[in-house]
Amino acid sequence: MSILLAALLGLVQGVTEFLPVSSSGHLSIIQNIFNVDYVETDHLLFDVLLHIGTVISVIFAYKKELKIMLTDCADVLTGKTAATEDGGRLRPTVRDLILILTATVPLLFVLPFSGRIEELFYNTPFISFALIITGCLLFACGKLTEGRKNFRTATVVDAFLVGISQAIAVIPGLSRSASTITVGIACGFKKSYAVQFSFLLSIPAVLGSAFITLIKALANGFEWANLPAYIIGMAVSTVAGFFSIQLLRKNIKMTNFNSFAYYCWGIAVISLILSFIF
């Protein structure tokens, strides 16, 4: 793989992982239509590195929130501080961690189907159809009324419902962020909290997936000569992902999800046409 191609795919991953347009769908479409030669061989390791790159970008973007959350939870576990505040309510940081872990649980039920799901990455017409569904989700999201729930008032049931949407969104072409943000707002989340929760939820989800996929990649073997290009791709995905997160965070109030819906529908039609040409 050339460094230029690796950088291009890293850029696509970084930009589309957090914008609600399906990063897996975009990567698969590019690879399938242009017959990227690594698709059939050692693509697993490269995909793992690209996703790790975007996890790093989340950690950098939310480093303050994550530091407070992990420090507070560590203090609670070691007995330095109480798990509850005055009034008997759980500390907000502890509640946030519990909500994130709860939302991660539904992914466990997807594991038995991972082989079949992986096959869908090579089916461009299917991915095009999934992008159409993503567009419909985003269009519906634009019609929803923003709620008031945040890390203090969101419930375990809310988190589990968001987690179910994340589990379904492992299907290529279905956007993880579009699914989780839409369901979060439907559960009454503030739009800013729905976005934050979606991004933080990606950390255990992507790391867990990366660990499993890394084992498969190492078992299948890969070309060590491609490793420099892979690292470049990961670095680009990290930088692009960081700026994508900042863009969405700063403009969340002005974000028009209908625009993303139209984009997904347009890409779906174009990719479907190209799949028959190429």
Short summary:
The chain is an all-alpha fold and 278 residues long. The protein has helices spanning 3-18, 23-33, 43-61, 63-77, 92-104, 114-120, 124-143, 156-168, 176-186, 191-220, 227-250, 257-277.
Textual characterization of the structure:
- The protein has 278 residues and is mainly α.
- It has one domain (3-81, 90-277).
- It has helices at 3-18, 23-33, 43-61, 63-77, 92-104, 114-120, 124-143, 156-168, 176-186, 191-220, 227-250, 257-277.
- The chain is globular, with a radius of gyration of 19 Å.
Biggest sheet features:
none
Query: Could you give the distance between the termini?
Result: 20 Å
Q: Helical proportion?
A: over 70%
Q: Round the mean pLDDT to the nearest integer and report it.
A: 86
Q: Rg from C-alpha positions?
A: 19 Å
The structural domain count equals: 1
The general outline is globular
Strand fraction band? under 5%
Tally the helices: 12
Order of helices and strands: HHHHHHHHHHHH
| Count of distinct strands | 0
Identify the quaternary structure here. single chain
Poorly predicted runs:
none
Which class of secondary structure composition applies to the elements? Answer: mainly alpha
Topology:
Blueprint: H1 3-18, H2 23-33, H3 43-61, H4 63-77, H5 92-104, H6 114-120, H7 124-143, H8 156-168, H9 176-186, H10 191-220, H11 227-250, H12 257-277
